[in-house]
Amino acid sequence: QVQLVESGGGLVQAGDSLRLSCAASGGSGYAMGWFRQAPGKEREFVAAINWSGDNTNYADSVKGRFTIAGDNAKNSVYLQMNSLKPEDTAVYYCAYGTALLARILFWGQGTQVTVSS
Question: Beta-strand (E) ranges in the chain?
Fold first, then answer.
């Protein structure tokens, strides 16, 4: 069983930056990344990184603003979010799975990100 613990969410203003962290325990060697879910909407993919860190994938809506990075020594993944917009407001979930998160094996509990206009 892999446990994912997220941190770094909060309330910011439009244009600000925020950095999310996710630490995994009980497993390694798989892809990690982030999904998000806004109120009344389905959970959507945000970004993913493979275990070796040489392959990443981003949703079109965050390309150029968000950067995902991994630290294998800490079994952690980070999401640097710049130029935040109100539409980025959502609960952000850390995910652990195969093939750049084509299949999710484990979810974190989620962390709230709120961007005010």
Answer: 3-7, 10-13, 18-25, 31-37, 44-49, 56-58, 66-71, 76-81, 90-98, 103-107, 111-116
Q: For 40, what's the count of Cα atoms within 13 Å in the CB-facing half-sphere?
A: 1
Sign of CA dihedral 103, 106, 109, 111: negative
DSSP state of 2: -
pLDDT tens digits along 7-40:
999 999 999 999 999 999 988 889 999 999 999 9
Residue 54 token pair: 């040489």
Residues 31-67 pLDDT 10s: 999 999 999 999 999 999 999 989 999 999 999 999 9
Tokens of 28: 């390694």
